[in-house]
Amino acid sequence: MISQFKGSSIFFHSLQKFPKNLKAFSSSHVLGRKMESPADTLLLLSGKSEEENDAAKVLKNNNTLKTGEGVELVLHSEVKLENDDAFRIEEYFNSLSTRRFGRLLIYSPRLSSTHDVISQNNSDLPLGTVCVADVQLKGRGRSSNVWESPKGCLLFSFSIQMEDGRVVPHIQYVVCLAMTEAIKAVCLEKGTPELDVRIKWPNDLYLGGVKVGGILSTSVYRSKKFYVSAGVGLNVGNEKPTTCLNAVLKKVNPLSRELKREDVIAAFFNKFENLYDVFSEQGFQALEGLYYRTWLHSGQRVIVQERSGDQDQFVETVVTIQGLTSSGYLLGITDDGQMCELHPDGNSFDFFKGLIKRKMS
Fold first, then answer.
1. Which parts of the chain register pLDDT below 70?
2. Which of 8, 55, 110, 248 is the most exposed place for a label (fewest CB within 10 A)?
3. What is residue 336's predicted lDDT score, i.e. its pLDDT?
4. CB neighbours (10 Å) of residue 275?
5. What letter would DSSP give residue 146?
6. How many whole angstroms separate alpha carbon 233 and alpha carbon 133?
C-alpha cells in the first residue's frame, strides 16, 4: 500500500465532483449454530484440485495457522453446507480457470477479518491462497478505517509474493483494474447490462458516483520477498450502506439476472492472473492505457492550497491530473506547465481532501 506522506496541513478543493474437534453437526447446524463472540469462528479449507486439497490437509493437520482462540479448522470435504446464504464453493471452483491464484480457499461464514487471516499467515500460505467470508465483523479499510461488511457483500483477501519492492505500490491498481474487468466479463457472460464500475484513486470502486467497493493492500518483507495481502470488499447484493451492483442492474432492467458473488470472484482471479503476469513481465506501463480508461481522474482539475512561508497565508495552485508517476502517486501539471507529484497528506479519510504538491525535476 502506498505509504502516506506526513506534511504540513493543506486544504484541497476539487473543481469536479465524483459522482477443537468438530462434532457431528449437520451442515445447517454448522452454519446455523449460535456464535457468542467473534472468536467462535469456523474456517473451512478447500482446494480446486488434489494438489490444493493436499495443501489444505497439511494446514489443518499441522495446525500452524495463526487464527486466534476459538477458531476451528475443518476440511470442506468433512462438512456439507446447506445454508442458502453460504458461499457456494463448488460453483466458485467450477468458474475458476487460473493456474495459481484462488485455487486454495479458506472460507468462513462469519469472520473478524479476511485480511487478518491472510496477512498473519502470508509467508506460510501457498501463493494465491484466498480467504472468503460471508460476513466480516471487523473488516479493515485504509488508515485503520472499518469497512462495513453485511451479507451480500463479496469479502475476500488473498496472498501475493513479490521480489521487487519498487513496484509493490502498484499492485493495488492491478487489483482494482482486475475487478472492474471481472464485472464487465460477468455481465457479458450473463447477458445483463454492462456496469460501468470506475476506479477512484488510489483504491476505491465507484458506480454512478457512489462507492461500491474498496481495495486494501499491505505488505511485509521477509526472506528477500515482499508478502502482499490484498483485500477486496465489493457490494454485490447488499444495498446498504450505499448501493450494490444488483440494485443498479434492477434499475436498468428489472428482468436482469442477479450477479453472484461466486461468479464475480472467479472472474476476478481469472482476470487478475493475466494482468499480474503482464505487470510482472512488462511493468505497470503496459497496463496504464486500460487503467486510465477505467479511472475517474484524467483531466481532473484540482486546487491545492499550501501554506506560505509565514504560515498565515495560503498559496493556491490549479493542477490538472495527467496520470500516475513511476512511484504510483498522482502526476499533475500546473497551468504554467510545471510537472508535479501529488501526495496525500496522511490526515484525510478521502485522499482528495488533502494533497501535497512536490515539484518534479
1. 1-40, 138-148, 307-312, 345-356, 358-361
2. 8
3. 92
4. 20
5. B
6. 10
Which H or E run contains 52? helix 50-62
Grid coordinates of 198: 470506475
Nearest to 11 by CA among 356, 358, 354: 354
Q: Please check whether residue 294 is in contact with residue 180, taking contact to mean a CB–CB distance below 8 angstroms.
A: yes
The CA distance from 256 to 192, in Å, is 6
Helices (H), 151-207: 171-190
Cβ–Cβ under 8 Å, residues 27 and 81: yes
The reported pLDDT for the residue numbered 237 is 95
Superfamily of chain region 39-291: Bira Bifunctional Protein; Domain 2 (3.30.930.10)
Alpha-carbon gap, residue 100 to 254, rounded angstroms: 37
- 11 alpha-carbon distance from chain centroid: 28
Task: Please choose, from the candidates 233, 237, 241, 232, the residue with its C-alpha nearest in 3D space to the C-alpha of residue 259.
Answer: 237
- pLDDT (0 to 100) of residue 81: 76
- Which residues contact residue 228 at a Cβ distance below 8 angstroms, ignoring those fewer than 6 apart? 122, 159, 160, 161, 162, 168, 171, 217, 218, 219
pLDDT of amino acid 311: 65
pLDDT tens-digit readout, 93-137: 999 999 999 999 999 999 989 999 999 999 999 999 999 999 998
Amino acid at 330: L
How far is the C-alpha of 343 from the C-alpha of 356, rounded, in Å?
A: 5
Q: Are 117 and 131 in contact (CB under 8 A)?
A: yes
| CB 248 within 8 Å of CB 206 | no
Rounded to whole angstroms, the Cα distance separating 336 from 248 reads 42
What is the amino acid identity at position 31?
Answer: L
Residue 331, all three cell numbers: 502526476
Tell me what pLDDT residue 70 has: 81
Residue 253: what residue type? N
Q: What is the pLDDT of residue 257?
A: 94
CA 140 – CA 233 distance, rounded (Å) = 9
Distance CA 210, CA 227 (A): 32
